[in-house]
Backbone:
């Protein structure tokens, strides 16, 4: 599978799957949640989350499943998305330093013109949201072992 940027040729949407989770969330739980909110898996171009979850095995498992890069953002960058969040949370802010993780990460990667198409959805230990981007973002091929990981400060592999 290859992440696809939208184009007149493909007609595909460019969706960003934003995820949040507690430390140690089982990969199966996060993947099940992701699958429950995604309208078309072929449209997922990125998985995005808080940088504090960059090493979570569940995050990498989901990115590998969809064969897309995992993009991470610092809490301050996610906090900047608060005005665009459908479900800001003071509780999440107290824990992470931002008022939302899944929605904010999806919107941050989708860009200023992006919009939420699936609001925050919860499982026992995780959250997921989807944003659609209307700007071109790089597309990547997936390796066998894992998808590359990126930070918001660079689009170069980490």
Residues:
């Amino acid at each position: 599978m290859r992440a696809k940027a939208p184009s007149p040729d493909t007609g595909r949407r460019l969706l960003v799957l934003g995820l949040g989770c507690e430390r140690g969330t089982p990969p199966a739980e996060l993947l099940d949640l992701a699958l429950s909110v995604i309208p078309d898996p072929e449209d997922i171009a990125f998985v995005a989350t808080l940088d504090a979850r960059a090493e979570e095995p569940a995050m990498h498992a989901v990115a590998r499943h969809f064969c897309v890069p995992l993009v991470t953002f610092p809490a301050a960058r996610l906090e900047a998305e608060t005005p665009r969040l459908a479900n800001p949370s003071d509780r999440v802010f107290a824990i992470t330093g931002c008022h939302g993780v899944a929605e904010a990460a999806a919107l941050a990667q989708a860009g200023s013109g992006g919009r939420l198409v699936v609001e925050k959805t919860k499982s026992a230990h995780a959250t997921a949201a989807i944003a659609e981007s209307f700007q071109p973002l790089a597309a990547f091929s997936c390796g066998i072992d894992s998808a590359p990981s990126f930070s918001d400060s660079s689009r170069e592999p980490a």
User: Anything to note?
Assistant: The radius of gyration is 14 Å. The domain at 14-136 is CATH 3.30.420.180 (Nucleotidyltransferase; domain 5). The chain has a mean pLDDT of 86. The chain is about 25% helix and 25% strand.
